[in-house]
Amino acid sequence: MKINWSGRAHNYSSADVNYLLKIIKKADPMTQGYYLKKFQKDFSDYIGKKNVFAVSSAAAALEIISALLKIKKNEEVILPAHTYCASAIPFARNGAKLVWADINFDSRTIDLEDFKKKVTKKTRAVIIVHLYGYAVDFRNIINFCKKKKIKIIEDCAQALGAEINNNKVGTLGDFSCYSFHAQKNITTLGEGGMLFVRDQNLAKKVPGLRHNGHSNFKFKRKYYWKPAMGNVDSDIIGQWPFKFTLSEVQCGAGIRMLKKLDSLNNLRIQRARKIIDKLSNFKELKFFNPNGKRRHVYHLLSAYYKPSKKINRDDLINLLNKKYKIQSVIQYYPLYNYDLFKKNGFGTANCPNTEKFYNNMISFPFHIWMTVTEIKYLISSISKSLKILQKKR
Ligand SMILES: Cc1ncc(COP(=O)(O)O)c(C=O)c1O
Q1: 193 lines ligand 1 (CB under 6 A)
Q2: Hey, what CATH topology would domain 14-257 get?
Q3: What is the per-residue DSSP string for 31-42?
Q4: Mean pLDDT value of segment 312-338
Q5: Ligand 1: distance of its center to the CA of 60 in Å?
Q6: Does the Cβ of 58 fall within 6 Å of ligand 1?
Q7: b/e per residue, 242-256, with b = 16+ CB within 10 A?
Q8: pTM attached to this predicted model
Q9: CATH 3.40.430.10: does it fit domain 261-392?
């Protein structure tokens, strides 16, 4: 048996494929039509918020957020460096000064006390990244941020369906993004995303920013090309727009997958808990075991492997790979160590937990398509590897 780190998280059922075939054959228009509206409506019902917009990726959603904020040069955006680079790039591109907050060592997500310490008069926004599918409970900084006029951006790329005290992640901040990339908890045929904007006036600008400045196409199709002028969502005003639209077929896939999201997430949670429980005797391997009124959706299954003088995380990765043909990965290279970030002045940070976790973490394959037998094989292989390494420590 072997378990690859796969670039495909989901399989589509025959019913899904038939639904998509109908769109491929019949949909007119093929973009920005019925399925876009339906996907947005279903998503809005799911998270319980209006002002949601389907876009081509979470990175695109973050670009739009960055454009809506109109961050001035050298205004500061605080975010964890332990995240995927897309959380940071749009803000750096638009001239923000990135300030790195450390992570909490146990939750592997932003340390809210460290965030507060790093706030200055120039802080415009904070990015809360619900990494690994873990819901960050940031309710105790909401008032603090309001008073200081700091906008809260939630990066929920990995956490659709996670909850903080019965609130879906992405609904407590000012802006949020979700990803439907191939490996996420649901996917719209490999790429896709969703944007939530709390402020009604800012939200009106999104359809134009998303689609080359064109308005919502409220008017009839026969007037497709008639420009709608003179109001906030009229054609090409104010700001250079993007082209971040999602096609009808992708929206159709989103509609189908959204229906399955809760059961897919429940399966993830159940499997993750089982794996964590079965490996709980190995004190050198520390998973994040959530507590409190939060629902964590285990987008990934990562753990800290405590090194000894002789043995470290790389030994565990190599053993799993060579002896058991299981591919694991190391995530996330602290963003301040990348050349591009360094060259742009974001190469310094005081983030000891970020370093310690990155240097000793392992992310096990945890794809939803894995069979019960594969999950069992994963548990027994990790367990056997840990025992072998215990003797060498
Ligand atoms: C934390 C985080 N933010 C943003 C993104 C960007 O998502 P997308 O690929 O949809 O642009 C990702 C994707 O991996 C991510 O993991």
Answers
A1: yes
A2: Aspartate Aminotransferase; domain 2 (3.40.640)
A3: BSSHHHHHHHHH
A4: 97
A5: 10
A6: yes
A7: bebbbbbbbbbbbbb
A8: 0.95
A9: no
Sign of the four-CA dihedral 79, 296, 273, 322: negative
* Residues 258 and 185: beta-carbon distance below 8 Å: no
Strand order in the sheet with 193-197: 52-55, 193-197, 175-179, 151-155, 123-129, 76-80, 97-101
Task: Give the model's pLDDT for residue 220.
Answer: 47
Give per-residue pLDDT as tens, 90-108: 999 999 999 999 999 999 9
Asked if 293 and 166 touch (Cβ cutoff 8 Å), the reply is: yes
Which sequence spans correspond to the domains of the chain? 14-257, 261-392
Instruction: Answer yes or no: same fold for 14-257 and 261-392.
Output: no
Q: What is the mean pLDDT of residues 160-182?
A: 97
Mutating to test ligand 1, I would choose from 57, 84, 153 the residue with most ligand atoms within 8 A of its C-beta, which is: 84
C-alpha distance from residue 244 to each of 20, 168, 257 (Å): 21, 24, 21
Residue 10: both structure tokens together: 């989901």
Q: How many Å lie between the centroid of ligand 1 and the Cα of residue 177? A: 9
